Amino acid sequence: MISPSFPAERTITVTIGAVPPDRLDKALARDVPEEAALSRSRLARLIAQGAVLHNGAVVTDPKAKVAEGDVFLVTVAEAEDSDTLAEDIPLTVLWEDADLIVVDKPVGMVVHPAPGSHSGTLVNALLHHFGGNLSGVGGEKRPGIVHRIDKDTSGLLVVAKSDRAHHGLAAQFEAHSVNRRYLALVHGVPDAADPRLRGIAGVSFEPGGIVRIATQLARHRTDRQRQAVLAEGGRHAVTRARAVEPFGTPVAASLLECWLETGRTHQIRVHMAHIGHALLGDQTYGGRRRLAGKSMGPAAEAANGFPRQALHAATLGFKHPVTGEILEFTSSLPPDLTQLIAQLRAA
Known about the structure:
The chain contains nine helices and 18 strands. The chain has helices spanning 24-31, 40-48, 122-130, 163-174, 195-198, 267-274, 293-296, 298-304, 335-346; strands at 8-15, 52-54, 57-58, 71-77, 80-81, 93-96, 100-105, 140-141, 144-145, 154-160, 179-187, 203-206, 210-219, 227-230, 235-247, 253-260, 311-319, 326-330. Helix 1 crosses helix 2 (40-48).
C-alpha cells in the first residue's frame, strides 16, 4: 500500500474526526497525531508527492473532499541531507536542546543563504554546529528558520531543529504570541504631545507614552529592495515604540524600545521612518537626514557616520513548542551601539 518511489521512514495513520474541514490538507492538519508534528504546508507537499493513501489509492489533490471516519496513511520519507555547505563559523548560543536553539546573531551575518549570500550565513554556521545531529525539517536535514532579522541588525533568533519544534514555533509567530523587543536609536523622539504625529495615518497612542503604528506594508513599487507603507493592500503590520532615553537639548536623537505585534520585512525601520523618526545609520529608509553638529558636537559625526541601522533584537520570549516551558532571553547591546550611546550621552 506504500508507493515504492517514496522511501518511508514512518507511516502515520490519520482518522478524520467529526465535522471535518472542507479539504484534505486542512483535515489532515487538524487530525494528524500531535506527535507527528506535521504542518499543513508539509502535509500539502506530501499529498503532492503521492505520499498520502486512502483505501489503497494515492490522493494527490489537497482540495479533495473528506468525510468523518475516513482513514488516510501518510508516509513520511527519511529526511534528506541539505545541499547547503556547513561552515565552521563561531556562534553565541544562549539555549540549545533536541528541538531548538537560540542564538545571538552578530552584525553583518545573513540569516539564510540567498543569491549573493551563499556562504557565511547563520544557516551555514548552524549546520556545522549541529554536526549532523539534526532532525528533518520539512523533509530536509536543515535548521528551521521561523523568523529573521536583517544582516545589519544584531540580536536574538530562535531556530527549530525538528519538525515538531518548527510547527509549534511557526504557530506562535502566526498567532503573534512571541515577545520580540528591540532597542533602536532614532532621529528625534516620538512624543504623544507632538501634533504632527497625530496627523499621520496609522498612528495612535497608548498609556505609558507608547506610540502604536498600524499600517499596510508591501514591496516598494520601483525599488524591490525596500518596503513601503500603503493605504490599502499589502500586509497588516503593527509596531509599538516607547522612548527610553533622549539625547541632546533640544532632543536630537533617542533610544527607543520597540516591540512587534507582527513581523514584516524591515517593519521597525519602515514604521519609524513613516512617522518621521528614522533609525540612525539607516541608509535605506533614513534618507539624508543628519544630526546637527552645532548642538551635538562630536556625537553628530559618530551618529551620521554610523555604518548600519542602529537596531538590536534585545529580548525574545516564547513557549517551548515541545515542553511547554516559558522561555525568555535577553541580549546586551553590541559594542558599536554601546559606544554610540555613550557619545550621544556625552553630548
